[in-house]
Write the structure tokens for this entry.
Amino acid sequence: MFETLGSLTASPWIYALVAVSIVLDVFLPVLPSGVLVITAAAAAAAAGAAGPVPVPVPEQVPDILLLLVIATSASVLGDMAAFRLGRRGGARLDRAIARSRRLTRAHERLGTALARGGGALVVIARFAPAGRSVVSLGAGKTQRKVVEFLPWSVLAGMAWAGYSVALGYFGTQWLGTQWLGTALSVVALFAVGALAAFLVRRPPPPAATAA
């Protein structure tokens, strides 16, 4: 799989593929957007494209800064699309939330969390499997204001993109092998995702519940 993904990084379409994957995985969390970002960053590191000493590199090696900007922007765009859907979803979305324990829990917790500056939940959930979907839809459904949600979405996108890019880039530099750096970076991404999922699923503090 990593060889197939690695070949995609030599294409000028890698940026579009990364952007589309990140935007859509708020609705389809099974898309490997994080793996794509890590693989592209690992390719840049392996070729020395972002290194301090200029070296000859292939023309199509991903630019690390552009990758970071695209990943962050696509993350925020996807969040806002889900947020808008949550606000305007109507009865059909109400039924979907009622059938989902995760969406119901998000609906209950986010009602006051964002307004009280508890938007750190948005950042944590960005790393959890499907957490981004749950939080973005839940924030929209609870009719939070854009100014309450957007700054946290931007921060979440920057944190997630920065972490994913750093994993692929520095992991490959330190290990000296692209495939090993990519593989271990993906494992690290999933490990942080598992921790984030645990934090998101924790019951809120008694004070927050009482509120």
Remarks:
- DSSP finds eleven helices and no strands in the chain.
- Residues 51 and 67 are 15 Å apart (CA to CA).
- The mean pLDDT is 77.
- Residues 146-175 form the longest helix (30 residues).
